[in-house]
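Example 9 (inverse folding). The structure is encoded as follows.
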């Protein structure tokens, strides 16, 4: 691949990653067309955003609008069991480079805000499904005939210089080219619905509860609470035939959930997601690139998905502007490293080490050495919760080291996610 000048770009997928990369490219003066199929389920996951997303909202010029329909988010609450819970406050994170707050967002409205920002920046938004095809036997991509015709205003009948797959977990190009995908270790089912009357301990915090099986999120949204369970596939199937049956049965069965949902009422259908952990090995080709979930998604537990999607959008726009093979290699390496760093931390949530370490940290803080250490740790450890540069080598090493050696004498099995 040679260095090239890219002037026209077609994006397939009008979610946050597609809209953000479109905005950045249009701002750089490129002619951009984005296909958004508008096929959204009644509910979309990805409602709890980490603070590191806020600078992206500011950059896209949508924060004020998002604030009008969202819940302000000041921290995260981890519920270990009915007796113990831990609160993390974003404004206690020392030296963080991100704001000390974020938002819980209704996704349909958030996605519309990001899409409108793209249109304002000059992206031609076509509200239709876009199609792509393999160009002969090569690894090159081209737009389908109807899609090319629908982009006439921007492309004038010529294929675009570059094509971006922002189709989310639908992953159009990886499927067409049969690209290898690394699946994560977990085979989970997530069941998601909105409820009213559900209790939350702190109305501005996202809650992550360790349950008798798996874990669940409680995300306070205006007038409702988003509830989602993450269960292993076999256990989910054992609860009933439909997503609704599984959701309702488990809510009644789990002792902690049945308590906080005793006055609760489900007000939406239940959405189901399976086996979502995945990372495509090749993120860039001769005339195409993957962005957002299309490239990879790790896991819902630390709400990192939207941040990774927006970070990859920005990095891809820079690589396209540069146009050199090296810039695209760097983009690919950056996204892979980002996904891997999150994956390491997330694995330590599931094996019980992180919860053990954080609980221990609370006790140690009461003592003198503990206070000194805590001053240091507060700079690095909570990056997981704010999303502030999770790829920072020292922070990554410290989390790895502490969750291996810092919990010496304490069995992480106690807090393993079953
Ligand atoms: C169970 C679960 C819980 C999650 N919870 C969180 C969370 O709390 N916080 C968080 O930050 N992230 C969370 N995520 C991740 C988050 O949802 C995603 O990372 C984020 O939506 C990625 O954005 P995207 O634009 O890449 O993809 P998407 O949001 O999936 O957008 C892709 C869009 O492209 C459209 N499309 C697809 N094919 C075509 C086509 N051919 N033509 C036109 N349009 C097309 C789709 O309809 C869709 O609108 C969660 C994910 C899961 C699975």
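The amino acid assigned to each position is listed next.
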């Amino acid at each position: 691949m040679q260095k090239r000048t890219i002037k026209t770009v077609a994006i397939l997928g009008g979610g946050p990653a597609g809209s953000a990369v479109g905005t950045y490219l249009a701002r750089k003066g490129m002619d951009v067309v984005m296909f958004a199929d508008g096929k959204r389920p009644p509910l979309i996951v990805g409602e709890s955003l980490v603070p590191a997303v806020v600078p992206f909202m500011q950059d896209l010029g949508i924060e004020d609008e998002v604030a009008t329909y969202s819940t302000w988010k000041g921290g995260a609450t981890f519920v270990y069991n009915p007796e113990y819970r831990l609160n993390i406050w974003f404004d206690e994170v020392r030296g963080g480079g991100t704001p000390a707050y974020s938002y819980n967002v209704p996704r349909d409205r958030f996605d519309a805000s990001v899409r409108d920002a793209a249109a304002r920046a000059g992206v031609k938004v076509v509200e239709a499904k876009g199609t792509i095809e393999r160009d002969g036997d090569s690894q090159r991509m081209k737009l389908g005939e109807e899609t090319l015709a629908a982009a006439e205003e921007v492309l004038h009948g010529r294929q675009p210089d570059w094509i971006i797959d922002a189709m989310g977990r639908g992953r159009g190009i990886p499927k067409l080219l049969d690209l290898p995908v690394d699946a994560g270790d977990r085979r989970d089912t997530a069941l998601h619905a909105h409820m009213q009357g559900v209790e939350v301990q702190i109305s501005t915090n996202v809650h992550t509860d360790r349950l008798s099986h798996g874990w669940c999120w409680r995300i306070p949204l205006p007038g409702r609470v988003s509830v989602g369970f993450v269960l292993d596939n076999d256990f989910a199937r054992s609860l009933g035939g439909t997503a609704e049956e599984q959701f309702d049965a488990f809510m009644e069965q789990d002792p902690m959930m049945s308590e906080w949902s005793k006055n609760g009422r489900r007000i939406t259908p239940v959405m189901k997601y399976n086996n979502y952990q995945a990372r495509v090995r090749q993120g860039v080709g001769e005339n195409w690139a993957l962005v957002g979930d299309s490239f990879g998604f790790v896991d819902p537990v630390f709400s990192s998905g939207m941040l990774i999607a927006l970070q990859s959008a920005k990095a891809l726009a820079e690589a396209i502007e540069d146009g050199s093979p090296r810039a695209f290699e760097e983009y690919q390496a950056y996204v892979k490293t980002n996904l891997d760093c999150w994956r390491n931390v997330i694995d330590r949530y599931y094996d019980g080490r992180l919860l053990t370490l954080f609980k221990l940290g609370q006790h140690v803080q009461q003592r003198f050495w503990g206070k000194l250490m805590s001053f240091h740790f507060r700079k690095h450890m909570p990056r997981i919760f704010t999303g502030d540069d999770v790829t920072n080598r020292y922070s990554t090493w410290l989390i790895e080291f502490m969750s291996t050696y810092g919990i010496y004498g304490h069995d992480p099995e106690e807090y393993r996610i079953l």
